[in-house]
Specification:
Blueprint (H helix, E strand, L loop, with lengths): L12 H23 L4 H21 L1 H26 L4 H55 L12 H9 L15 H20 L11 E8 L2 H8 L1 H18 L5 E6 L2 E6 L5 H16 L13 E8 L6 H16 L22 H14 L2 E9 L5 E12 L2 E3 L1 H10 L3 H22 L4 E6 L1 H4 L4 H12 L6 E6 H19 L4 E7 L14 E6 L1 H4 L6 H16 L3 E4 L5 H9 L4 E2 L8 E2 L3 H7 L2
Parallel strand pairs: 6-8, 8-9, 9-10, 10-11, 11-12, 12-13
Antiparallel strand pairs: 1-3, 1-4, 2-3, 5-6, 5-14, 6-7
Length: 607
Amino acid sequence: MRNNDSRLFIKNDAVYVTIVFVSVVIFIALLAAQIFTSLTPVRYYIGIGLMLLAFLMNVFEGKFGYYITFALNFVQFMIYTYEYVIMRNESAPLLLMMTFLVMVINLLLQYYIIKVAGKIQHIEDAKRNERGKAIRKELEDEMFSRTSLIVNHESMGSHHGLSEAIGRNLTSSIDPLTTLPGRDMITERAYKLIREDIANMRESDVPDSACRPFTVIYLALDHFDNFTRSIGHKSMDLFIQNMAHRLREAAEPTDMVARIDDADFVILSRRTLASEAEVKYADKLSKEASKAFAAGIDSMNATFHYGFAHYPDDSRHAGELIAKAEERMGIAAGTIKNVDDTVGLPGEEIFKNKSKDEIIAIFEQAITDGSFHITFQPCFTYDRKLTGFEAFLKFDNNGDIIPPPVFLAAAENAGYMRRVGTFSLENSLGALAAINKIDPTLTMNINISNYQLREPDFIQSFSNIVSSTECNVDNLVLDLQEESLITSLPDIRMTIEELATTGVKMALDNFGRGYSSFNAIPLLPVSVLKLDGNFTSRLATDATVRILTRSAISLMHDIDITVTATGVGQEDQFEILAGSGCDRFQGLFLGHAITSDELEEFINEQG
C-alpha cells in the first residue's frame, strides 16, 4: 500500500493492511447476520452498526478504505433493493435510505479528507524544504569556511561574497565558471605527485636523493569585495573568467592552474626554481592576471599577492601545502599577522641523506632501546570523567623529540611503515587490554595511516593482533586521517567497512586542518569526529571559528556523531568547547601524555 496520501492516522503499511482486512471481515459478518435475521429491530441495529463501521473505515483507512467501503455499501444497496422489490421486506426501505445516506456522506467526507491531507502534505513538504535548505546552507557554509580555518581573509567578512562563492560550487573537480580545475582536482594532482615521489624514493637506496620537489603558488586578487561591489557580481564573473584564461596562457605548460575561491588561484609547478626565479615567475603571473582589468575600470588598480609552499620542506600533505601557501599569501597581503612561518621540521637531520638500510637500522635500534615507544593522552568529559586514551608514537632521540611527520615520512620512504604500524597496534591494543582489566569502559584511540589501510592483508594482520592481545574491540576507536578520505576513499572504503563489521568504531581525525572532507562523513561508518588542534587553538580569539565550531558540533550531533576536541591547551578553550556542546576533550589543559607504566596508577587516581 504505497498510496497513502489521504491516510491521516495509519502510516505503517503492515498495520494498515491488518486493519483493512479485519474491518472488511467484520462488515461482511454483520451484513450476513442482518440478512439471515427476520427481527426488524435487530436488522435496524445491525444497519446502524454497518453505517458506523463504514464511516470509520472511510476516515481511518484513507482513499483505499473509501473504495472498499463504497463497494461494500453498493452490495448492501443491491441486497436491500432485492429485499424491497422481490421479497417486500418491511425494513428494506429504511435500510436502503440509510445505505444511500452513508454513501453520500462518505463521498463528501472523503473529498474533505483528501483536501485536508493535501494541505497537511503541502505544509510538511514546505517544512522539509525549509529544513533541507537550512541544512544545505549550513553544510555549504561549513565546507567553505573550514578550508580557511588557518587563514583570516578580509573577504570572509562578506556574507554576500561567501554565498556567491558557494553558488558557484567551488569545491567541485572542475570550476564551472572558468573551466579550470577546482580544489578537489588540484589537491588530487598534488597527492598523485606525492605518491609517485614516495614510490620513487622507496626504490632508491638513498631516499632523499630521489626526492622530486614541487611548488604550490597561491595567487589572490586584493580587495575582491571592493571590486565586486563596484562592478556587480555578473561583471565580476566575466573578469574572473578573463583572469583564468590569462593565467592559463601565462603559466608553464607543465604547471596546473586551478581556481580555489572567488579570485583566488593555485598554481602547481613541478619545476625547481631558485627563490629569485620563483618570485619572478609569480610576478609574471600576477601582472598577466591584472591585465584582465586593463579596460573598463581604469580608475581601479588591480593588484595581486601570492604565497609559496614547497614539497617536501613545508609539508608532505597536499591539503596542508595549499593551506600553507594561502597562509603566506595572507601574510604578504597583510591580512594575517604573527604566524610562525618556520620552514622545515626539527629532527630531519637524523634521516638526511641516509640510505634505506641506515634508516631502518635507526628505527630498529630505537625500538630496541625504547627511544621509539607509545605514550597515551587521556580523554575526558566536561565534568573531568576519564573516558579513555589516545595512543601516540613517540621518537626520543637522545632527548630530542622527533616530530611524527618527520619519522613517519622517513619510515614510509624507507619501506618501514608496515613495521611501524604493527608496532603501534601491538603496543596500543596490549595497553587497551590492560586498562580494561582495571576499568572495562575505557576506550583507546589509535591512529591508522593511509598506508596501512591500503595493505591487502591489513584486516588479517589486525585480526591476528586483536586475538593475540585479547583486547575488547568494542572499546577500540581507529582514527582515520582526514586527508586519507580525500585521496584514497575508493581504495580504503572496503577496508574501513570490513573493520566496522568487527565492532571497531571509526573516528575522523584532524578535522579542520586544511582540506575539508565533511561530504565524506555520511559515506563512512564514522561515529566520532575529532577537531584538530589548529581548529581549537583560535577559539578564544576568533569569533568566526567559535561560530563554526558550534555549527559543526550541532550538525554532528544531528547525525549521531560524537565530537572530541584535541589540543585543548587553555581553560577558555575548554569552556567555549563545553558551552558549544562538545562531548570529549583532550589536551595539556586536562592532562599530558603518559607512558604505559603510568597507566594503572593514573586510572586509579581518577577514581
